[in-house]
């Protein structure tokens, strides 16, 4: 038998990853009661299987490469990375896959955690099912939101069907970032961010890596020179890169040494024999199996939202009035930092719209209903929160060697949008600060500038620690700062940031 309970809150957030946590905290700022529903670890993908563990795996190799670029230090280095301490350090960043500290944070913020899988039964109402303590009978909770539900369920990896390859045996990013037994050989199917980062990290740990990508270059959503630089660096590390190629089928080969192996047959007629296969062919919004059909939405599609993150019944149609979404589940921008930004917008909108002084108040005609002036003031307040950065100022970093950081539009995207632009590019190695970082420093900086307003609409940096150059570009793009004003933002000398002065000189200032 199953036990059941009923709970009601002002706001319910489904998903307790980084996006959901931020959303819940912001939603409760005006005194609304908030609950978060989570069926896995509080902290989500970023904390345990994505951002944190992947960067923890990548950092030791980057530190070693940086040291090798400095005479006087390079001569002291006699070996390669030791996988055991690298993995042990990674484990500390994932809290050994325990979420106690994150649960404590929720409790400290006054947010109620409900463990289990949520499924809508109607507007603002859902059932949450979780195993009960003791005999294991399921515990079902009916959870109702008085005002709003915010979806922050993230995304799931896409695993294409490959003849002969058991989906349960392949790695996704989760298995790669939580690896404990480093394989001798690995094939990575895909050429995007996960593919190139994990190719770097696993090669650093001693794995022989082959990358199989059907595109004609890596990082196809970035500037071409960025993908080319990463491909060249991976090749120098010993990674075998097969572009314009797909896996057509897989066959078992029995044993190689003491481990089983798989032979991948490629579309160019060649084969690759590896111990493990990592599929990194993208992710899809996690919209299935949460009962979206019960509220009139298609569970097979990303959730269409407006810039206040309110879910639309139809794309460009009317909002639901109560359902919001943030992060990967919307299909707008699949990065943790952008998802947290959307979560802050959604949480602020809900807090202002439905809080004690909200425009919609606690109910029409009730004793605590706000007066007309309060409603007008609150409506003006929550209408200011809009996720405008999702359209023109999305920042992203690829933590390979070299790093790739970018914000805004690529050159091709700007031209496709009909903008009249000028591309300004500069060799980072020519900046004095770069030569101090490393004798073999190599990199490129590029700005996309409109020819009429002379503002930056896109920027890409490729090189060691290129991520540290990104936020200045993000501010310039978001602020629409004209080049002649940026000329007065003097970069410190000698730093790599001096490239900003050189780029402006290239622009004629």
UniProtKB/TrEMBL annotation:
Keywords: FAD, Flavoprotein, NAD, Nucleotide-binding. Residues 9-341 form the FAD/NAD(P)-binding domain. NAD(+) binds at residues 190-197, 282. Residues 354-378 are annotated as: Disordered. InterPro entries: Class-I_Pyr_Nuc-Dis_Oxidored, FAD/NAD-bd_sf, FAD/NAD-binding_dom, FAD/NAD-linked_Rdtase_dimer_sf, Pyr_nuc-diS_OxRdtase, Pyr_nucl-diS_OxRdtase_dimer. Pfam families: Pyr_redox_2 (PF07992), Pyr_redox_dim (PF02852). GO terms for biological process: 2-oxoglutarate metabolic process. Disulfide bonds join 46-51. Binds 1 FAD per subunit. FAD binds at residues 55, 153-155, 328. GO terms for molecular function: dihydrolipoyl dehydrogenase (NADH) activity; flavin adenine dinucleotide binding. It comes from the Bacteria. The keyword Nucleotide-binding applies. Transmembrane segments: none annotated. Residues 394-500 form the Pyridine nucleotide-disulphide oxidoreductase dimerisation domain. Belongs to the class-I pyridine nucleotide-disulfide oxidoreductase family. PANTHER family: DIHYDROLIPOYL DEHYDROGENASE, MITOCHONDRIAL, DISULFIDE OXIDOREDUCTASE. This is Dihydrolipoamide dehydrogenase.
